[in-house]
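Homework help board

Subject: predicted structure for assignment chain

Our instructor gave us this sequence and asked us to write out the predicted structure in token form, then describe one feature. I got the tokens but I'm not sure how to describe them. Can anyone check?
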Amino acid sequence: MKGLPFARRLGFALHGLRHALRHERSLRSHLLATAAVLMLLLATRPAAIWWALLLLAVGLVLVAELLNSALEGLLDHLHPARHPAVGAVKDVAAGAVLVASFVALAVGLAFLCSLW
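My token output:
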């Protein structure tokens, strides 16, 4: 894939995002939460630092979810049968999404506390 034009590489990335949106319910749930965060930011018009912190936290969750989905898809393809090691890797990836979600929740709670 090296040496391909940027537009072609961008097309691959957009195709991956479309695939994930179609097939990953968790990603769609996280995107709904993202929309809620954006609406809250637009409604409260906080300082720029809060925009940055909340968008970074939301981005962290979305990136973790995309990587988790990619890893699960690859593992399911390479080893379709149940295997304890594959299950453990999937669980760790899901744990990463959970940690990212807790970080985002903590940032969101800090933001809400700053409003009072």
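Reply (TA_rk): Your tokens look well-formed. For the description, you could write something like this. The domain at 25-115 is CATH 1.10.287.3610 (Helix Hairpins). That's the kind of observation they're looking for.
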